[in-house]
Amino acid sequence: MWYQGQRVRCTNDHFSGAVWEWTSTLPKSGGIYTIAALNRLPQWNTRTPILCFLLREMEREPDHAFFSAWRFEPADDTPSWSNEAPVHLLQDHRP
Fold first, then answer.
1. What are the tens digits of pLDDT across the range 77-86?
2. 80 lies in a domain?
3. Which band of pLDDT confidence, cut at 50, 70 and 90, is reported for residue 63?
4. Domain for residue 88, yes or no?
5. Residue 86 lies in a domain
6. Is residue 93 part of a domain?
7. 20, 29, 32: which is closest to 57 by C-alpha?
8. What are the phi and psi torsion angles at 18 (to 5°)?
9. Domain boundaries, position 66
10. pLDDT tens readout for residues 12-62
């Protein structure tokens, strides 16, 4: 599940040459980014709506763009809203 504010890692930075028609800044494979917004937008080649992210690190660019969610994976499996919970080890009560 994706959420605004989540840290993600880019896993695919192979873009079509057409990308330069709408942006000059692209995520890099292995780079860590923050989801600023989520939206279902049509893919440029098929017009099929898919989940896309606006990345906080790139939203200030004058030609910022949304990027397909399939290009990313969670950077950390721990949700940002989770608190550190104390861990209590179970004791072995066998004779």
1. 655 555 554 5
2. no
3. confident
4. no
5. no
6. no
7. 32
8. -65, -20
9. 7-23+31-74
10. 999 988 888 888 889 999 999 999 999 999 987 788 999 999 999 988 777
pTM across the whole model:
0.74
Q: Rounded distance, CA 82 to CA 3, Å? A: 13
The first and second tokens of residue 84, run together, are 């550190």
Strand partners, 84: none
The count of domains in the chain is 1
| pLDDT confidence of residue 89 | 54
> Cβ–Cβ contacts within 10 Å for residue 72, how many?
23
Q: Which two tokens stand for residue 28?
A: 């890099």
- SS3 track for the chain: CCCCCCEEEECCCCCCHHHHHCCCCCCCCCCEEEEEEEEEEECCCCCCEEEEEEECCCCCCCCCCEEEHHHEEECCCCCCCCCCCCCCCCCCCCC
